[in-house]
Amino acid sequence: MxxxxxxxxxxxxxxxxxxxxxxxxxxxxxxxxxSLVSLxxxxxxxxxxxxxxxxxxxxxxxxxxxGPRRGFELREVGGGWRLYVREEYDDLVADxxxxxxxxxxxxxxxxxxxxxxxxxxxxxSQVASIRAVNVDSVVRTLLGRGLITELFQDSETGAINxxxxxxxxQNLGINSLDELPPISPLxxxxxxxFSERA
Length: 198
Known about the structure:
By secondary structure, the protein is an alpha+beta fold. Helices cover 40% and strands 13% of the residues.
């Protein structure tokens, strides 16, 4: 009996489902990426076995095995694994979902989010200085959406410093902020208010 075999009571037969099928069942219902450790706990299997099973599923969905390439992919984002629609089908799915899609961020919210992503940790007044507008309501909106969070309060000024959350990484489909494009080419002089990300 292996470590991941379920225990049976006396007279009861336990049927061991394949690890990849157990993983797929969990991956189908999760809404946020889960780490290998979290997935291993969910399917009662060792982390190395889950890592191998994930690699097999990635290959299978990409069409590297016997079957065809799927319209979805298993992707590592924000330090965890989750099923995503392949990028080329984004428009198709968006059209299908239609009115059920969550409300988009306003231009002001996107600009404020960009400032926080590139400058964090950053205070509300620093963001307002860079954008040259009041950002109080926009910051509240971003906090409400879970895209930014309060990191710490400055001991001298009492100002709250903000940073982005894993939810932003998940929405952007990236693992870390290091994957954000350099900001300099997008600005007039490439320096005002920002330092270029390496």
